[in-house]
């Protein structure tokens, strides 16, 4: 029923225009702004489901393509489309934004209309990032994304927000400038800004390495990979709950998406030549960051570090492919790695959102995030405690939750590259459980620690809706990930062909 | 059949979901009715399935339920494999679970978390069934971790108790260390045998038993590496040295789950795993030797620790560790059937002992210290008799179930020529003496001698609701029956009758049970054989020593303790494992994490590079500000310099210098 519609354009511009409308009309009336934003978010989410519903699962190429001349003089097109890699991310974006709008309901009291508008605009831009097929269009969205997030942290953030925003901005901006240079170079070589037109370029290795490094500067910061990760804990700590949710659930994924859409297909030889670097950094993320996460005293920092460790599996899966094939793992092994990384991205979107929303629930009541201020929450908030334990278990990769699927696939795949890759990666079983469950022990279990905890009230219906729906999704994809994997497989198999044409 | 198997698995899941999510709405009585009914359905159907297998009307079932994921050509599935090994496990799991469910009605009668508890134990039954009924490694791992989750939730059931939430975190993390190996083992299986399906993997392993891989700089048999990695998982779940430390602490949980999870079912998952993987282990002499030796070490040394415990549950917990060691000894000697046989008999009499201990604990108002018990046979006659029967079974009294299963293991190791079998034989023989000693120590301290009961506890005993003790005693009686007789009736078919058929594979050269069967002339003759058996006399000796010091002449005990002080100290410190792990690994990990955070993240990356760059840029900007002098000739000069520089680049380019 949506075949004739420019669905992707709607998904990009409806939230942006909706956000502007909220800004214009809602400043005086917070209630109206909330309902209007909710309406927009729901419609966008439903449209994203329509996108999924109309998506041809067996198809590797781009679907829902729109292409119009934008800046004809420079050959820049308004070119949108999604494949099995980007479509799930679009749906995830729409879903996360809906969560954020609901999560803000009674909680955000300072300029709620502006807050909601910022997230709606952010949503459109992020969907734009995932669906842009023109390099310049991508770049514009990629950069534009910084602005609403900058404002969200800068206006609704915590006490140290200025340091965090500047750090966040500089880190990510520095990376993307390098990317722009690389994109312009590619335009000159390919004669077009079409991202897929870059794929066939036969560039010499030296050039590929330069381009690869330029792209790496942009994407590694977003993921974030060690050692350019230190902006993330600061940004999370200062960001309001919604900001953390979007940051963790979506913006980190843009880094992983960038590797799949740009680095691996455009510079496969450089990816092969430098895979040791990426694999090394990913494994450091799993172990080093896992250990650092364990000793955090601030709940949000702990989850932020755990995000970095989890994202390590994404990049590990992506860049292990060459070694898996060299060691005889074949196409199955390579797909296991790529799909594992991709599933990990989607799953982490849900789990990190759930974790940050849970911390938000506690923060709204206690106005602290220090682990040492909590203890015995289960006594006062049994329903919340049950959900929080479930999310922590998912974070620790318990089978039956979505958190298991990606890690399991990547660990199985990494064994095919060599025993030691798998042995280091599998340390996450211990570390992930240690930082997640030690935190649970100190926050949820134990005697009621103080009067503030004693006064806690269990989650209300709105919060139950938020956390409950996430719980259902996390369990569903843990028990039955097949539909998710089926959607992404053709596109990832096609990517694999570009990366390793001899396969 | 598929529907029946699905029903067996899903009934307890349904019960768990309803009792867990709507426990408040349906109330306490309905929660226990529903969950008991669910387990009863599973148990009844499991018994029927076993009957079908025994009578020969059912053949083994191996089918996919659904495809979990497809990756390239690789199928990851959820499916059931039900053969005779599975059927035995299903019956053990569901019947003990049923007994524990009923018992819980009494044990937890005054607990505010009543519905939650029933939800958890129903969920456990589901998870354990998924584990034993899996036909592939993916589902096995799911069940493996899911029982770990429920164990975590139940050890920490009383979540306000600091010792309980310490114990459950410890249990989960130690198990995760085991799972680390287990998952790598699964990865090895997938890589070298290209499948996660049991049948396909076993076929591939049989087709290429000589396949090698390079690891640690040498070439090793793939099957050895895979088996050892999988066995690390088994060591975690079945609490074998050095991953045993969590099991004694797990006693912080309510007693019904100590019986169900930490004695009868979950901790035997490692035994089941090795038995199920016999088509792999049989090709690796090295892996079997490791299983044998570690099992023997656990059997002997953990039994010794049980001698110095005062907490009634901890004595039984160390006994469980030791008995699990016996089972691994059997597996390591290629006597898989004997290992599973002991698993079965042990499940009944150990669950009985735990539930008996729980009855005492409830009667004495949560008193667990044996130093404040004594002479309880007067107050709890049924508990006394059933626990005596359980004790007799455990120490291996002829005709009792434990005699058959334990003696079969000892004889099998005796006949084995595997490396380490000599050591294992000595260890399990000494273990018999130890077992008898700690078991009768417990028995005499609790049921005989002078009364050392706290007055409040005695007061409490008379105020218990009237249904509490009966509802707890019925399961004791029901478990006492198989504890006594099941060995007599099942040893012949299970060990010597080829009962397990295709489910367990033993290479002809390793088949010690076949050797043993030549000496076997029926259950009764096997019992009479005890008279010429060192094991029997060792057990008698243990009982006599226990009687002498803990009943006849307790006044001599302080003198003995003083003489043995250094030994007792070592045992009380549990050989120092806890100190090493708590301070070495847990403390060291935290220390390392803190160091990496402070030095790496905050010091080097943020301090030196990020903020350092910011400072440097600030300084550079200061310099540049200095350059903006406002004098025209400065600017002109800079422009000319720049132009020259650019020009030189172009010139260089034309000349081809680059």
Relative strand content of chain B: under 5%
Q: Over all CA atoms, what is the radius of gyration of chain A?
A: 22 Å
Mean pLDDT of chain A: 91
Structural class of chain A: mainly alpha
Strand order of the largest sheet of chain A: 1-2
What structural category characterises the helix and strand content of chain B? Answer: mainly alpha
Number of helices of chain A: 22
Distance between the termini of chain B: 78 Å
Question: Judging from the principal axes of the Cα atoms, what is the shape of chain A?
Answer: globular
Ranges of chain A where pLDDT stays below 50 over 5 or more residues in a row are none
Q: Can you give the helix content of chain A as a percent range?
A: over 70%
What's the story with the biggest beta sheet of chain A?
A: 2 strands, antiparallel
Query: Order of strands across the biggest sheet of chain B?
Result: 1-2
Topology of this structure?
The complex is a heterodimer of chains A (503) and B (658).
Chain A: H1 7-26, H2 30-53, E1 63-71, E2 76-82, H3 86-103, H4 112-131, H5 135-144, H6 146-156, H7 161-190, H8 205-222, H9 231-238, H10 241-266, H11 268-273, H12 275-294, H13 299-326, H14 330-366, H15 377-380, H16 382-395, H17 402-417, H18 419-425, H19 428-443, H20 451-454, H21 461-479, H22 482-499
Antiparallel strand pairs in A: 1-2
Chain B: H1 2-21, H2 23-55, E1 61-71, E2 74-82, H3 84-107, H4 114-133, H5 137-155, H6 162-193, H7 198-207, E3 212-215, E4 218-221, H8 222-237, H9 246-249, H10 255-264, H11 269-276, H12 278-281, H13 285-306, H14 312-332, H15 336-363, H16 381-395, H17 401-415, H18 421-447, H19 455-461, H20 468-496, H21 512-519, H22 523-528, H23 534-552, H24 557-563, H25 565-572, H26 577-627, H27 632-654
Antiparallel strand pairs in B: 1-2, 3-4
Helix pairs in contact in B: 1-2, 1-4, 2-3, 2-4, 3-4, 3-10, 3-15, 3-20, 4-5, 5-6, 6-8, 8-11, 8-13, 10-15, 11-15, 13-14, 13-18, 14-15, 14-17, 14-18, 15-16, 15-17, 15-20, 16-18, 16-20, 17-20, 17-21, 18-23
């Amino acid at each position: 029923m949506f075949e004739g519609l420019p669905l992707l354009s709607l998904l990009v511009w409806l939230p942006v225009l909706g956000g502007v409308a909220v800004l214009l009309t809602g400043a005086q009336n917070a209630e109206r702004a909330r309902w209007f934003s909710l309406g927009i978010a729901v419609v966008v989410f439903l449209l994203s489901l329509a996108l999924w519903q109309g998506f041809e699962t067996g198809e590797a190429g781009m679907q829902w393509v729109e292409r119009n001349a934008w800046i004809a003089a420079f050959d820049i097109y308004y070119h949108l489309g999604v494949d099995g890699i980007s479509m799930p991310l679009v749906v995830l974006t729409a879903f996360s934004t809906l969560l954020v709008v609901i999560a803000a309901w009674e909680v955000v009291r300072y300029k709620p209309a502006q807050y909601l508008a910022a997230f709606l605009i952010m949503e459109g831009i992020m969907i734009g990032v995932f669906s842009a097929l023109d390099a310049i269009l991508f770049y514009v969205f990629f950069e534009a994304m910084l602005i609403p997030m900058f404002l969200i942290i800068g206006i609704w953030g915590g006490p140290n927000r200025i340091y965090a925003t500047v750090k966040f901005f500089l880190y990510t901006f520095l990376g993307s400038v390098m990317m722009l240079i690389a994109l312009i170079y590619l335009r000159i070589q390919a004669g077009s800004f079409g991202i897929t037109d870059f794929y066939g370029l036969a560039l010499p290795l030296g050039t590929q390495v330069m381009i690869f490094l330029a792209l790496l500067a942009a994407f590694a910061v977003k993921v974030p990979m060690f050692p350019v990760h230190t902006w993330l804990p600061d940004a999370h700590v200062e960001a309001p709950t919604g900001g953390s949710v979007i940051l963790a659930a979506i913006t980190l994924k843009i880094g992983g998406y960038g590797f799949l859409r740009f680095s691996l297909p455009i510079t496969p030889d450089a990816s092969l030549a430098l895979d040791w670097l990426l694999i090394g950094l990913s494994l450091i993320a799993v172990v080093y960051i896992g250990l650092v996460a364990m000793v955090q005293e601030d709940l949000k920092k702990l989850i932020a570090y755990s995000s970095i460790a989890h994202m390590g599996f994404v990049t590990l899966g992506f860049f292990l492919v060459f070694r898996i094939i060299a060691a005889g793992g074949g196409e199955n092994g390579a797909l296991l790695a790529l799909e594992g990384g991709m599933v990990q991205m989607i799953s982490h979107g849900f789990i990190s959102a759930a974790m940050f929303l849970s911390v938000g629930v506690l923060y709204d009541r206690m106005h602290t995030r220090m682990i040492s201020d909590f203890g015995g929450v289960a006594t006062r908030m049994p329903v919340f405690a049950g959900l929080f334990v479930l999310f922590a278990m998912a974070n620790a990769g318990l089978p039956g939750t979505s958190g298991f699927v990606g890690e399991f696939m990547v660990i199985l795949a990494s064994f095919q590259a060599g025993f030691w890759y798998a042995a280091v990666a599998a340390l996450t079983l211990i570390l992930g459980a240690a930082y997640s469950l030690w935190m649970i022990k100190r926050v949820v279990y134990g005697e009621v620690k103080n009067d503030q905890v004693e006064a806690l009230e269990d989650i209300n219906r709105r919060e139950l809706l938020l956390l409950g729906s996430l719980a259902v999704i996390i369990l569903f994809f843990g028990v039955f990930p097949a539909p998710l994997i089926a959607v992404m497989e053709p596109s990832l198999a096609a990517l694999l062909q570009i990366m390793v044409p001899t396969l | 059949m598929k529907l029946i198997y699905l029903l067996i698995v899903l009934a307890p899941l349904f019960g768990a979901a309803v009792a867990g999510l709507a426990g408040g709405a349906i109330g306490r009585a309905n929660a226990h009715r529903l969950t008991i009914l669910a387990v009863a359905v599973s148990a009844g159907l499991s018994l029927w399935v076993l009957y079908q297998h025994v009578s020969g009307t059912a053949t083994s079932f191996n089918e996919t339920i659904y495809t979990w994921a497809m990756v390239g050509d690789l199928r990851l599935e959820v499916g059931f494999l039900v053969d005779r090994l599975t059927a035995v496990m299903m019956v053990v799991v569901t019947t003990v679970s049923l007994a524990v469910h009923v018992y819980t009605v009494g044990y937890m009668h005054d607990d505010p978390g009543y519905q939650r508890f029933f939800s958890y134990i129903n969920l456990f039954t589901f998870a354990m069934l998924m584990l034993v009924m899996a036909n592939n490694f993916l589902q096995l791992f799911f069940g493996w971790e899911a029982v770990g989750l429920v164990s975590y939730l139940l050890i920490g059931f009383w979540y306000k108790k600091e010792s309980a939430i310490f114990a459950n975190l410890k249990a989960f993390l130690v198990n995760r260390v085991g799972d680390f190996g287990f998952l790598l083992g699964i990865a090895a299986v997938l890589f070298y045998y290209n499948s996660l399906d049991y049948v396909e993997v076993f076929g591939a392993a049989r087709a290429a038993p000589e396949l090698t891989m390079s690891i640690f700089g040498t070439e090793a048999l793939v099957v050895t590496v895979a088996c050892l990695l999988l066995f690390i998982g088994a060591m975690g779940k079945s609490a074998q040295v050095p991953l045993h430390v969590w099991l004694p602490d797990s006693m912080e949980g309510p007693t019904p789950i100590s019986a169900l999870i930490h004695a009868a079912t979950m901790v035997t998952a490692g035994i089941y795993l090795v038995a199920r993987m016999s088509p792999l282990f049989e090709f690796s002499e090295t892996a079997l030797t490791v299983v044998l030796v570690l099992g023997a070490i656990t059997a002997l040394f953990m039994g010794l620790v049980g001698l110095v415990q005062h907490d009634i549950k901890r004595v039984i917990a160390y006994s469980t560790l030791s008995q699990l060691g016996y089972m691994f000894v059997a597996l390591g000697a290629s006597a898989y059937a004997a290992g599973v046989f002991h698993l079965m008999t042990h499940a009944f009499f150990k669950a009985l002992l735990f539930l008996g201990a729980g009855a005492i604990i409830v009667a004495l108002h949560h008193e667990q210290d044996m130093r404040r018990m004594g002479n309880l046979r007067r107050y709890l006659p049924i508990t006394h008799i059933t626990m005596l029967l359980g004790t007799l079974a455990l120490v291996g009294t002829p005709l009792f179930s434990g005699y058959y299963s334990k003696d079969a293991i000892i004889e099998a190791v005796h006949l084995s020529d595997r490396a380490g079998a000599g050591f294992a034989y000595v260890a399990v023989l000494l273990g018999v003496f130890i077992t008898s000693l700690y078991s009768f120590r417990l028995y005499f301290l609790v049921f005989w001698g002078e009364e050392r009961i706290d007055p409040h506890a005695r007061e409490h005993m008379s105020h218990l609701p009237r249904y509490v003790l009966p509802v707890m005693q019925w399961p004791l009686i029901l478990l006492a029956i198989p504890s006594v007789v099941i060995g007599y009736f099942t040893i012949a078919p299970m060990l010597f009758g080829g009962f397990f058929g295709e489910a367990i594979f033993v290479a002809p050269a390793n088949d010690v049970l076949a050797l043993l069967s030549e000496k076997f002339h029926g259950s009764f003759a096997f019992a009479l054989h005890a008279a010429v058996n060192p094991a029997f006399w060792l057990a008698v000796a243990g009982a006599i020593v226990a009687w002498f010091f803990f009943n006849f002449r307790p006044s001599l005990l302080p003198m003995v303790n003083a003489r043995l002080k250094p030994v007792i100290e070592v045992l009380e410190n549990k050989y120092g494992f806890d100190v090493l792990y708590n301070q070495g690994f847990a403390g060291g990990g935290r220390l390392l994490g803190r160091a990496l955070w402070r030095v790496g993240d905050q010091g080097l990356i943020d301090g030196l590079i990020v903020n350092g760059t910011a400072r440097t840029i600030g300084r550079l900007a200061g310099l540049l500000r200095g350059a903006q002098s406002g004098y025209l000739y400065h600017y002109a000069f800079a422009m000319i310099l720049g132009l020259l520089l650019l020009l030189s680049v172009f010139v260089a380019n034309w000349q081809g210098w680059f």
